[in-house]
Amino acid sequence: MKYIDIKGTKNNQTVTLSCSNIVMGTADFxxxxxxKEAEVLLDRYVELGGNLFDSARxxxxxxxxxxxxxxxxxxxxxxxxxxxGCHPVREAPGTPRVSPENIDxxxxxxxxxxxxxxxxxxxxxxxxxxxxxxxxxEALHRHVEAGRIRAIGFSNWELDRIMEADNYAxxxxxxxxxxxxxxxxxxxxxxxxxENCVSxxxxxxxxxxxxxxxxxxxxxxxGGLFSGRFNPESRDNQEMVEVYYSxxxxxxxxxxxxxxEDKNVEPIQVSLSYVLNQKFPSCAIIGPAxxxxxxxxxxxxxxxxxxxxxxxxxxKK
Length: 317
Prior knowledge:
InterPro entries: AKR, AKR_Detox_Biosynth, NAD(P)_OxRdtase_dom_sf, NADP_OxRdtase_dom. By secondary structure, the chain is α/β, with parallel strands linked by helices. It has a domain at 3-181: Alpha-Beta Barrel (TIM Barrel). 40% of the residues lie in helices and 16% in strands. The chain contains 11 helices and 10 strands. A hairpin with a 2-residue loop joins strand 1 and strand 2. The longest helix has 17 residues, at 247-263. It is globular.
């Protein structure tokens, strides 16, 4: 397992969080009624060196199950938790929930469910561009000062808003962002996979290159587009068709298959390694259904790609 460093704050002192570059995503798969199966997967991830878990207030049960698991293993200080807040409620997906009050409500609920008094990484799950960044950054800073958050970041924010928020923090002596969590994958989406989601474009990637702020990618394997389950003629999954079916992505798939054969690995593993072989620090959030899928992803994380190989499979040469 490889690790990246993320800057944080503890007791008003700068600390470094060493985080595995493969992140265990939890989403909706962690539920109290499948605790036994989930425990096997979580345990194996840690055994293999993983230490960063991705969750969110929006993910219903996953925070509760993570809290139960950490309590049973007594390993809270040995793992890192990334959770997210300020997602619209499921009953009103088009209504933004990004305010100091929403931050307070979601963070405190997350801490209760996780059975902890702090989270290592905290991200705002969505944005509301109509809201000024000042009160948002001030609210996050208060929680960092109170010890409830070690490091702050954003998920699904556009680059101009990220830069505006970070500049506000810099100019006002507040906690600055330590990471960004958009989608980044070899397969390029034709539209947002979910409402108001953001994928890293060329400008965002260049910003990460310049700042070296870590990027934690969700849907790093593009829903398994290069897993062998999909092809241009297979159109049963309407969401995948609308989001990923393009001539360029199928050409990427052909190149990935060639490179995978040369390296004696699977195409899906090469597609994951693309995310982890950027010029800036990066992590891939994965959602394995079982231990076999987890171990396959970890093998993909070990694949080293040259800059020429990264550019070639991404159709840049």
